[in-house]
Amino acid sequence: MQITVRSEIWPLAAAFKISRGTRTQTEIVVVELSDGTHVGRGECMANPRYDESQESVTAAVQAIAPAVEADELDRHLLQDAMPPGAARNALDCALWDIEAKRAGTRAWTLAGLDDLQTVETAYTISVDTPDVMAEKARANAYRPLLKIKLTGDGDLDRVVAVRENAPNARLIVDANEGWTVKMVEPFSEELKKLQVQLIEQPLPEGDDDMLSDVAHPVPICADESCHTRGDIDRMAKLYDVINIKLDKTGGLTEALALRDAAQAAGLKIMVGCMVSTSLAMAPALLVAQGAAFVDLDGPLLLAKDRDPPLRFEGSVIHPPVPALWG
């Protein structure tokens, strides 16, 4: 087995702004495995929120490369050999891909799943002034599910602007840790009136213990606070939903296990993504089967996508072709 690690920069179609800052491009790392006949690929996004960079992710993969090239690691052993995070995600997904190609089957068959069905993704409107967000809502009012990025003060005006300009869309909001605890209950009450269906990560990860004492008529979803199965007991006491992202779990292997553990604990499932290409979305589609909310619109935010890409019809995502992944 030979392993290759490659850093890539992908420009966005427009500036993307959340509570922590604005970006115009996304930093991707791709891992490729080759046995001389088959090639498996996986992709991750280096996320500064978790102290990741392209350099640190590449170094983590290169450090374990000798064991991979000696065929001493499969995707099961990988879970103990590397910590959760972007680096393990790219390698784990590459291992799934090459295993499926060697077996002449699809990755979802290896996972014990039925044939993949299409899923309907949210489309994200990044945080801006109410007027700008209203314009984006008008342009995307035909989409069935919109995700609104929020930041704190002025958020209710932003949601009102989107609701007025996309009256038929289901709405979910994402504060990206940008609220204070005093905002949660009154904002939730007002968002309920606006028919918002979900509030994602309102409080910073270290402050979310306070959610246990806060009324919220709109369900609350953990994102930054939930990474792996080790978080489930705490999540079940504080949240109604968890957002599973492969870059947080460290790959498809843990993501599937996390989904099962969360459902057993009575939590609903959202499947999300970083701003990445179709190569990163493809394995997440396995986790997204039957999820309450799907947010895999990363490729729609890019100036261009991979070839071949996932096929999007509006907000509907079709299963990947083998040439892409799995």
List descriptors.
alpha/beta, Enolase-like, domain 1, 2 domains, 3-stranded antiparallel β-sheet, 11 helices, 14 strands, 35% helix
What would you say this structure looks like, in words?
The protein has eleven helices and 14 strands. It is α/β, with parallel strands linked by helices. The protein folds into two domains: 2-104, Enolase-like, domain 1 (2-Layer Sandwich), CATH 3.30.390.10; 119-317, Enolase-like C-terminal domain (TIM Barrel, Alpha-Beta Barrel). An eight-stranded parallel beta sheet has the order 5-6-7-8-9-10-11-12. Strands 1-2-3 form a three-stranded antiparallel beta sheet. α1 crosses α3 and α10 (252-264) packs parallel to α11. The radius of gyration is 19 Å and the shape is globular.
> CATH H level of the largest domain: which superfamily?
Enolase-like C-terminal domain
Q: What is the CATH architecture assignment of the largest domain?
A: Alpha-Beta Barrel
Write the element-wise H/E pattern from the N-terminal end onward. EEEHHHHEEHEHEHEEHEHHEHEEE
Main sheet makeup = 8 strands, parallel
State the shape: globular
> In what range is the share of β-strand residues?
15-25%
Category by helix and strand content: alpha/beta
Q: Tally of extended strands?
A: 14
How widely separated are the two ends? 18 Å
CATH class of the largest domain: Alpha Beta
State the domain count: 2
